[in-house]
Hints:
Elements: E1 9-13, H1 18-31, E2 34-41, H2 49-57, E3 65-69, H3 71-84, H4 101-115, E4 119-121, H5 130-141, E5 146-148, H6 150-153, H7 159-168, E6 184-187, E7 192-195, E8 225-232, E9 235-239, E10 242-243, H8 246-259, E11 264-270, E12 276-282, H9 284-300, H10 303-322, H11 328-340, E13 346-353, E14 356-363, H12 371-374, H13 387-408
Parallel strand pairs: 1-2, 1-4, 2-3, 4-5
Antiparallel strand pairs: 6-7, 7-12, 8-9, 8-13, 9-10, 11-12, 13-14
Amino acid sequence: MSERRQIKKVVLAYSGGLDTSIILKWLQTEYGAEVVTFTADLGQGEELSPAREKALLLGIKPENIFIEDLREEFVRDYVFPMFRANAEYEGLYLLGTSIARPLIAKKQIEIARQVGADAVCHGATGKGNDQVRFELGYYALEPDIEVIAPWREWDFRSREALLDFAEKHQIPIAKDKRGEAPFSVDANLLHSSSEGKVLEDPAVDAPEFVFQRTISPEDAPDKATIITIDFERGDPVAIDGQKLSPAQLLTKLNQLGHDNGIGRLDLVENRFVGMKSRGVYETPGGTILIAAHRGIESITLDRGAAHLKDELMPKYAELIYNGFWFAPERHMLQALIDKSQEKVTGRVTVKLYKGNATVIGRESPYSLYDQELVTFEEGKVAYDHRDAAGFIKLNALRLRVEAKRDRRG
């Protein structure tokens, strides 16, 4: 084991689970450091008081235990700005895990400053994307911070070795933790993500027990659910006319999505570190939200603005996936996206039915849809059908020149 650098105090991203509890004890034994735990409530749906109790059990001082409810900040300042861009990584993934990491990193750095810590620590493995996301966030906010990544440093080579360490140091081990779990789950208010073990073969259908947040579309009601979503400047603010806070609104959409089997995704994606991985994602509320947002944009955004947004979206989504939330290029793109949303205000009607969220109506005081322009009847507007002939000929000019050249050839 290589010589450890001198660390006096470290802020650990702590879930209270077995892995981060082992990391906590490992930091104490290997670094001899004072450990400060930070547990974030991002809407993962778990009771967080056991994390406090477990930290106390492992010798953490009460003043060194931080548990924060970040649900509103998470949705307001991270999820909603991302959804203004209609961000989808590789055309499908709504970035539920990716968007949570910069907020956790930000809070860890804030706590490190508050308590005078000289290091931060995360529990991400050395094969995944999260190690990159956490550490890019740390360094962007505190350039000289020391970062400890146990999975890249320690000498444990098997699950059994980890469990032996836990037993040696009297870390409670749940019975289902003896041996390897059937799959790994990460969850927050936006989504749940399942990876590994029973999901590792991309040719095999995911078993039904994997799904955490949705009933199967086959089991969803035979009658459609119709809802309205109100938007102001690109952000949803009400469901069926009822004003809700960001976290309340997403929670409500999650329930509606769950009940109608909406938001399942089985994806093989390209990780930033270079390998492909298969994940099963559930984003019930987010799937409804992105459909509704595109619906309101369809009548409020000019064609040029809408198409430019769609051209930039893959780059924006990739930046978030790869962990560059705090990078200048993400801030630049966000400014452009937010500018585009100034008049994205109105109401969208969505039909939820057996796994589908379908926009069936949209209205806005800033609508660019002009019924007189699109009607087949002769309207009293400044559009002359004969103007189309010159428009078409000008656009066809280069095609005609090429065709004549090829004919000569």
